[in-house]
């Protein structure tokens, strides 16, 4: 039978993967020596010339070390886990993930993300799989700032809470500085000359509810304006709640309103328009969250205070890796920056 030569347009057979034995043969060393070089074993007594031959053979042959085997040798991997309840379905998800991913990559790690949808069984399974893969640690995140009971399995590795915290401070945490955010929003209105400033707060108990109110009250008192509880109205934190609360707030002859979030501010815009009030000429408005699909597209564009999602993700990784020092007994606070547009 005469052998045939494959034509150029015929697919070539897949090349067998390069294994450690191939590297050892090319470098003229033992497989054990290749293993020590690949795993950077500091106790192995290997001459510099042999190390260079192994590294050169690895590069020339295109050898890829077995990540799982290396994990078994070193006891850890180059992965950091991120487990979240519903973060991947929220408008801010990409920012937290991007911040954590960028910071992890900067230090030689890759982020593994699991979105559990708030399902406890899925959460347990995700954490278990990450532990099996010897992740360097796990970030545990929630889609809004609140207290949580951390899953017990997090005690088996280094872990940091992102955007949430435990009541007993059993785990390190990074959270938005809600009080500072409330001060920043109020300062924007004070700086514009306003003194009759209302606050539409959420009716849902949360660190955001109490923290933003505290910052608002603190700034008014510091500025000598004084705090008037009649100018604080609670509402559901959506457009309809903002509209209904605005009708009550506007009865108090205010010139500016700080809204708990951008959706509430959208409802306020609707109410102002129905009363023939112009923003910002007749009424200045500041929101919170910087939910860009809302704030940047209102007319006029909404001045707001951003939740620092990207910075939360990055800060969580730095805390996990020990790059940032932990804050004893309390969560690390991440500042909420102002985003100035045209509503003040």
Would you kindly provide a written description of the structure presented here, covering whatever features stand out?
This is LacI family DNA-binding transcriptional regulator. It comes from Nocardioides eburneiflavus. Pfam families: LacI, Peripla_BP_3. Keywords: DNA-binding, Repressor, Transcription, Transcription regulation. The protein has about 350 residues and is an alpha/beta fold. The chain has 3 domains: about 20-75, Orthogonal Bundle (434 Repressor (Amino-terminal Domain)); about 80-175 and about 310-335, Rossmann fold, CATH 3.40.50; about 180-305, Rossmann fold (3-Layer(aba) Sandwich), CATH 3.40.50. It contains 12 helices and 12 strands. The protein has helices at about 20-25, 30-40, 50-60, 65-75, 95-105, 120-130, 180-190, 205-220, 240-250, 260-275, 290-295, 310-320, and strands at about 80-85, 110-115, 140-150, 160-165, 170-175, 195-200, 230-235, 255-260, 285, 305, 330-335, 340. The chain has a 6-stranded parallel sheet, sandwiched between helices. α1 packs across α2 (about 30-40), α5 (about 95-105) runs parallel beside α12 and α9 (about 240-250) packs across α10.
Fill in the keyword field for this structure.
transcription regulation; Rossmann fold; four-stranded parallel beta sheet; alpha/beta; elongated; 344 residues; 434 Repressor (Amino-terminal Domain); LacI/GalR-like_sensor; 39% helix
